[in-house]
Task: inverse folding
């Protein structure tokens, strides 16, 4: 499958479709909410300062900084089987160039489709930890989103795609320290993708046969040939939003435990807490806790359940700079995690069993009546400072009404959130 074949599928997307437009706008506001939350965090603020310094506030650098910060939050949407997180790249890259609703919707949708396709083909979750599928696909997401938003020809979109993927591997190592290269590489991938789109616009040509079976196999042991079946024009519908700042492997367990708390379970009275996860999800959720390491506090499921029990507002704490309460840390040590082969499904279902005075109660998630995306987004926006929340709500309303200036308003908010003059206390 060459780049022209792949792009021909993407360009069949109807940017005027109402259901698709609603999905894109939902993901747009979610990405901007993540950006607002991340901009107020110490590390997020440092990333934005870096991109302002190298780009002097130009839109392309702002988009790169926004991508890095959205992904940094670990609150952005994810396609679970492939580990693709295309919102972080597609929304900023499309916003800075799109001039109307239809172009923007098509650009973001196509970015999601190519991101999921490449992430699946490189092996998805099976490629971890050597290859990070989301990073591997990130330049292509940005390139396709930017190229379509710019209104480039079919041939130019295909050229932008291959130009963006030259030299990509998805291998990031395990960077430590803060600010971390883990997030910088996402910004750089977005920058590379946007530049690839601009290069294609300028007439620069690449190898349209680049994404060959041999090339794909060279990216990861789990990689397969990229086939038309990998490319789902409606992939955005399968990219799910996160209700909390969390590794996606643990989100359903947190939801199941919260459901038990709502039913009257007293966390202080529990004798035992056991969580059952799919084998593929258990290793991340059960890694040793290092309270000083932000990512550790986000991934460690025991700590997340302790937060849910004793500091629930901090489930939406992106920064994780303040120490956690003694009760939270003590609770984390009592949570046992077990890999369970019977838990199947692409959304990584979870079962939580608690014991109190010899009696057991069980929570399972997802449920048929689980929280919908709009409810999740509302909670995310409400967790932000009032001024920021109001700004997001105005953009959300304009997008929902298909206001002619809605895309420009969303772009204006992205630029404001990445600007040095935006008060960080308001973004936190």
Result:
């Amino acid at each position: 499958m060459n780049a022209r074949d792949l792009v021909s599928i993407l360009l069949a997307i109807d940017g005027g479709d109402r259901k698709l437009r609603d999905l894109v706008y939902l993901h747009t506001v979610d990405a901007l909410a993540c950006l607002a939350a991340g901009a107020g965090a110490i590390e997020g603020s440092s990333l934005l300062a870096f991109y302002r310094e190298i780009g002097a506030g130009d839109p392309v650098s702002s988009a790169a900084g926004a991508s890095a910060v959205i992904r940094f939050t670990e609150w952005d949407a994810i396609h679970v089987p492939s580990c693709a997180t295309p919102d972080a790249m597609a929304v900023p890259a499309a916003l800075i160039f799109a001039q109307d609703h239809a172009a923007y919707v098509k650009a973001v949708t196509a970015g999601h489709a190519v991101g999921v396709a490449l992430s699946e083909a490189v092996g998805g979750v099976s490629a971890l930890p050597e290859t990070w599928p989301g990073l591997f696909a990130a330049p292509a997401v940005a390139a396709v989103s930017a190229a379509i938003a710019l209104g480039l020809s079919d041939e130019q979109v295909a050229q932008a795609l291959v130009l963006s993927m030259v030299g990509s591997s998805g291998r990031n190592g395990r960077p430590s320290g803060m600010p971390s290269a883990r997030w910088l590489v996402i910004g750089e991938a977005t920058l590379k993708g946007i530049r690839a789109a601009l290069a294609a616009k300028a007439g620069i040509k690449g190898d349209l046969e680049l994404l060959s079976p041999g090339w794909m196999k060279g990216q990861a042991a789990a990689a397969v040939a990229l086939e038309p079946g990998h490319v789902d024009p409606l992939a955005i519908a399968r990219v799910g939003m996160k209700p909390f700042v969390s590794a996606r492997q643990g989100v359903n367990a947190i939801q199941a435990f919260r459901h038990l708390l709502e039913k009257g379970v007293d966390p202080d009275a529990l004798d035992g807490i056991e969580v059952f996860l799919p084998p593929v999800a258990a290793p991340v959720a059960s890694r040793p806790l290092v309270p000083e390491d932000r990512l550790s506090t986000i991934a460690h499921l025991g700590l997340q359940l302790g937060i849910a029990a004793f500091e629930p507002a901090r489930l939406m704490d992106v920064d994780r700079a303040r120490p956690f309460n003694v009760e939270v840390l003590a609770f984390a040590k009592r949570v046992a995690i077990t890999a369970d082969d019977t838990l199947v499904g692409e959304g990584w279902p979870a079962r939580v069993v608690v014991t109190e005075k010899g009696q057991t109660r069980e929570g399972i998630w997802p449920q048929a009546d689980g929280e919908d995306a709009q409810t999740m987004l509302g909670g995310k926006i409400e967790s932000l400072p009032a001024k920021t929340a109001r700004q997001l709500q105005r953009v959300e309303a304009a997008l929902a009404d298909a206001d002619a200036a809605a895309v420009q308003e969303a772009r204006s908010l992205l630029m404001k959130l990445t600007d040095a003059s935006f008060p960080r206390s308001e973004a936190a």
